[in-house]
Write a structure and sequence with these properties.
Layout (H helix, E strand, L loop, with lengths): L42 E6 L10 H15 L2 E6 L4 H5 L5 E5 L9 H12 L3 E5 L10 H7 L3 E14 L13 E11 L8 E6 L10 E9 L2 E6 L5 H5 L1 H14 L4
Length: about 260
């Protein structure tokens, strides 16, 4: 696989202390100008699957599974798109933005980048799946939102996933560990210590040693962010254990639980 601001308030207030700069003004309404959907209403999800690098064959399955989960649970609606022009104009219509199997340097303007960071830091949710960490290396604030950038995938095989936190909404019911055929990622920096790790790879199951987090959560300003490195294969998306994680992640990032 190929490796591969906020309007009046600086993103640094939420991520890191520092000055804020923007090459162009934010356009469209602020992501914090409208409250999230009412508690009883379905969670409104915007799902981005655009790619500027490696494109996963599992993207159609990912979109289909999200649509099916939306229909079967009734807990959320999903708008799946690869039209990046929707970002600045329509984020106020959503509660959670999902970057699923994205890759490369997606061509967001500074205004669109501001809209995304403002959206999450202002109290909404972010979900990144698999190669969301192989996306937008040139935008450090996005990297902090995801939690870590992709380094390599040394193991594409059956491995054992250890559930570190069985109490989180995204991991409830998974048990202590489970086996999965997957393309397992490593990252440029271990995010442990900056995020709350939910899943990690059992290194012995792939003939290795070390600490390899696979899924984690963090607070971002008033919002919440979740990342899961699984999802390379279509079979992962159709696995009920993975779907359980997706539903829990959407609920949690939308602050419904």
């Amino acid at each position: 696989m190929k490796k591969r601001v906020i309007g009046a308030a600086c993103l640094g207030v939420f991520f890191l202390a520092g000055a804020c700069s923007s090459g162009e003004p934010t356009v469209g309404p602020s992501a914090t100008s409208q409250p999230p959907a009412a508690r009883g209403a379905p969670i409104r999800v915007l799902m981005i699957t655009a790619t500027a690098g490696f494109r996963h064959d599992s993207i159609p399955a990912a979109r289909q599974v999200m649509a099916s989960l939306s229909a079967s649970t009734g807990e959320f609606t999903v708008m799946a798109t690869e039209d990046l022009s929707t970002i600045s104009s329509s984020l106020t219509a959503y509660d959670v933005i999902v970057f699923a199997l994205t890759s490369g340097e997606l061509e967001f303007t500074n205004a669109q980048r501001a809209a995304i960071t403002e959206f999450v830091a202002g109290g909404r949710g972010f979900v990144g799946i698999h190669s969301a960490s192989d996306t937008l290396y040139g935008w450090p604030d996005y990297g902090r939102l995801v939690g870590a950038y992709f380094k390599e995938h040394p193991w594409t095989q059956q491995g054992t996933v250890v559930v570190e936190n069985q109490a989180h909404p995204a991991t409830q019911g998974l048990g202590e560990r489970f086996a999965l055929l997957e393309e397992f990622y490593t990252f440029q920096e271990n995010p442990r210590g900056r995020v709350q790790v939910l899943l990690r790879l059992d290194p012995a199951s792939v003939g290795s040693a070390g600490d390899y987090p696979l899924a984690w959560v963090q607070s971002v300003g008033a919002g919440r962010a979740y990342y899961n490195a699984l999802g390379h294969f279509s079979e992962t998306w159709t696995d009920q254990r993975f779907q359980r994680q997706l539903i829990g992640a959407i609920r949690w990032t939308a602050s419904r639980i």
